[in-house]
Amino acid sequence: MEKTKFSAPGKLILFGEYAVLYGFPCIGVAVDKRIFCEVQKVKEKKIFLSAPEVSVKNVSFDIEDIDKMKEKKIKFLLKALSLFFQEYKIQSGLKIKTKSQFSFKYGLGSSAATVVSLLSCLFNLFQRRASKKEIFDLALRSVFNVQKIASGADVAFSTFGGIVYFITPGKIIKRLKVKNLPLIVGYTGKKVDTSKVVKKVDVDVKKNPRYYYKLFSQISFLVEEAKKAMEYEDWERLGALMQKNQEVLERFKVPSLRYGVSSKVIDKMIKAVLKAGAFGAKLSGAGLGDCIVAFGKDKEKIERAIKEAGGVPLNLSVDLEGVKKEI
């Protein structure tokens, strides 16, 4: 039977998280750890699904039951499959397998990468020609249908690869011409449910719109300045802007989150890497846990500082390809 395989990279937000949800720009990067998806047609009118990285093995169900499935660990994948079948009037049994090069606990955009790689497989398998922008559009619909609040930034980074300047909902997707980004990443040791945190912040934004939109405007200015600094490869300037972005995020004192979107472990790790010579550091994504990002020359020294602060250095670099066909 016919089959195909695609992969899509994970991602990190470098500047502009939260603000991007409300129409302001952000900058993010695709990283060189991927999620692979293999899809094969089968004779049965069923879906056979295996995603061992999230402990889902050999699940099967009838095609008409896709929307009835309540398995939370694969909810994004199921929604993408459902939307594709509806959009293109597909009625075909499938065997779907996913494999990841990184742990889902790291907060590297695993859901977006899974959706992008799956949809790319489906477009290819059913001979529906699609540009990366068309893949992005359907992937964003899939993610938004599940999360309800989503910018699409992670979808864009996984689809297009490289370092991307982004304005929701894909109003601007611009790859930046940046080489040799001195990126250093540390995992805090705490997995965060991004959707839950974002929804809590959104409640506070709606209660205090003037306060938050002032912060978003400040972040937007930093994003634009960071874009210039990257293009000129002014890493010290970029680090200083990163510090300022972190300071603004620390002012997100959301009552329901107790400490806001930063945390004691994030603050400890940032302090440690700055002491080790990093040009700048900040949380990446929803905050509270997941990863911090930093820029610096002495990678070994900064990674050692991450370990000493209780974090886990992640050996990541920029992935320039975005989603791609494997077979």
Note down, in words, how this protein is organized.
With 327 residues, the protein is an alpha+beta fold. It is 39% helix and 25% strand. It has helices spanning 75-88, 110-125, 132-147, 153-160, 194-207, 209-231, 235-249, 264-275, 299-308, and strands at 3-15, 26-42, 46-51, 56-62, 93-100, 163-167, 172-176, 183-187, 280-284, 291-295, 312-314, 324-325. Strands 1, 2, 3, 4, 5, 6, 7 and 12 form an eight-stranded mixed beta sheet that branches. Strands 9-10-8-11 form a four-stranded antiparallel beta sheet. Strand 6 (163-167) and strand 7 form a beta hairpin. The radius of gyration is 20 Å and the shape is globular.
What characteristics describe this protein?
alpha+beta; 8-stranded mixed sheet; 327 residues; 4-stranded antiparallel sheet
